[in-house]
Design a protein that fits this description.
alpha/beta, 2 domains, five-stranded parallel beta sheet
Length: 323
């Protein structure tokens, strides 16, 4: 035990004889703990800085010791020890804190993920996210949803959210595990997958409205997304506009036979059936089609049955079952 310590002062009954306040006694005890390695200097500094009464107690103690020295010269050694300890407390409190920041990654994984989840839910208020496009694309598909349907002010630019220096891969893991990304057409989905590597490498849940001339290319690309586990397909009247290559050719020669377009003739179905490794498949009817003809609901139910039996097969499954 060093000569200057609160323990040695207590053995001399200094706190009682000098009438030291509880605040200064707590600080002197903390100083002993600092010397023994129990707490660091930053903790001592916080104890002093966060309480004006504790800092005032240090000044009052120094003043009291000066008065005792004047009236009781035999107490000079003890008073000097107390004054030096008070001075050390002030010196520690006035040190500048290191600029390293909070050691976030020293926290347990469960706590970090909980913090990330709170951050995500504070920005993304819905389970489904409609990503914003930073660059105007060539997509000419109709857009019935307003741009801010699923967005808050912080969600309008995924480039800033997915910045490499902004958040960590751990944040991405929590984000993509908890949120579903919705796209208004395959063209938009393909643009995001090709221009956003983080989205391509991490997205797990996608909902897309099936329409447009890029459906086949997009569904072929979806089969290469490594972590995709859930796919939702939204069908509408727009789904039946673009036909696959064979149906387009046959329609030009047999127009009466293709007066009513079948779902099997739609562009992208063949590529969609090649997707493997999913855990969940959903088929929905677009809002504008709900309450319409029964054929829409029949197509939805039949397509769900077809996709559920094929898209959930493991990726290494090579046997081509008949339709």
């Amino acid at each position: 035990m060093p000569a200057k310590s609160f323990y040695s002062l207590k053995t001399k009954a200094v706190p009682v004889r000098y009438g030291l306040s509880k605040n200064i006694q707590d600080l002197l005890m903390a100083l002993d703990d600092h010397h023994s390695g129990s707490i660091d200097a930053e903790e001592i500094g916080r104890l002093v800085r966060l309480s004006p009464k504790r800092r005032a107690a240090i000044a009052n103690t120094i003043t009291k010791c000066a008065s005792i020295i004047k009236n009781q010269p035999n107490e000079i050694p003890t008073c000097c020890d107390v004054i030096e300890m008070c001075t050390e407390l002030l010196e520690i409190a006035d040190r500048k804190s290191p600029a390293d920041g909070f050691p976030f990654f020293r926290l347990p994984v469960e706590i970090r993920e909980r913090i990330f989840a709170l951050m995500i839910n504070n920005v993304f208020h819905t389970k489904c996210i409609l990503p914003a496009s930073n660059k105007p694309g060539t997509c000419k598909c109709p857009r019935f949803d307003r741009d801010n349907t699923f967005q808050t002010a912080q969600m309008k630019d995924l480039r800033h959210i997915f910045g490499p220096n902004l958040i960590t891969l751990e944040f991405y893991r929590v984000l993509f595990r908890t949120k579903t990304f919705r796209f208004r057409c395959p063209c938009e989905l393909r643009s995001h997958l090709m221009n956003n590597d983080i989205l391509f490498d991490n997205v797990r849940k996608i909902v897309v409205q099936w329409s447009g001339p890029e459906a086949a290319k997009t569904f072929r690309l979806l089969n290469k997304v490594p972590k995709l586990k859930s796919l939702g397909i939204v069908i509408s009247r727009l789904t039946y506009i673009h036909l696959n290559e064979r149906s387009t050719l046959m329609k030009s020669y047999f127009p009466l036979a293709y007066k009513n377009t079948r779902l099997g003739d739609v562009l992208g179905l063949d590529e969609l059936l090649e997707i493997r490794g999913l855990n969940r498949v959903e088929v929905m009817i677009a809002h504008s089609s709900r309450g319409g003809t029964q054929s829409n609901e029949m197509d939805r139910a039949n397509l769900l049955d077809l996709l559920s039996g094929r898209l959930t097969q493991p990726k290494e499954f090579d046997h081509d079952t008949g339709l």
